[in-house]
Amino acid sequence: MQPEVKKAKKKKRLVKIFKRS
């Protein structure tokens, strides 16, 4: 997997958590 994709996925996960709280 490319590091860029990994970063994007991590960011998406963080955004999801942020929106929840």
How would you sum up this structure, described in words?
Residues 1-21 are annotated as: Disordered. The chain is mainly α. 86% of the residues lie in helices and 0% in strands. The protein has one helix at 3-20.
| Helical content band | over 70%
Count of distinct strands: 0
The biggest beta sheet reads: none
Low-confidence stretches: none
Oligomer: single chain
Task: Please report the number of helical segments.
Answer: 1
Work out the radius of gyration.
9 Å
Strand content: under 5%
Distance between the termini: 30 Å
Which outline best applies?
A: rod-shaped
Gist of the model:
This protein has one helix spanning 3-20.
Jot down its keywords.
mainly alpha, 0% strand, single chain, 21 residues
Q: Would you spell out the secondary-structure blueprint of this structure?
A:
Elements: H1 3-20
Biased composition (Basic residues): 7-21
Region (Disordered): 1-21
